[in-house]
Amino acid sequence: MLTRMQRCLRETKQGDLTISTKARKEIDKKIDDFVCSKGYSGYFGLLVGNYIRSLLIYNGVFMQGRVALW
Questions:
Q1: CA 43 to CA 61: how far, in whole Å?
Q2: Which among 38, 36, 46, 52 has a CA at the least distance from the CA of 69?
């Protein structure tokens, strides 16, 4: 079974590794659902979601989170 990060990557016809937009959007939605299920909202909810996304970014999968304005 593929891990969540591996599902965000796909192989092209030329054999190169690239990021799957479809899987990236799915993971982004799951992160938002997780944050809501924990009861986090507002600025703190944004921070928690973006922290989880930062773990994927660190491992090479670009994830764009919501913008947290002060």
A1: 24
A2: 46
Three-class DSSP category at 18: strand
8-56 tens-digit pLDDT? 677 888 988 777 778 788 888 888 899 999 999 888 888 888 888 888 7
Q: Which residues contact 49 (CB under 8 A, 6 or more apart)?
A: 31, 32, 34, 35, 40, 65, 66
Task: Catalogue the long-range contacts made by 42-49 (C-beta closer than 8 Å, 24 or more residues apart).
Answer: 43/68
The domain segmentation of the chain, as residue ranges, is: 20-61
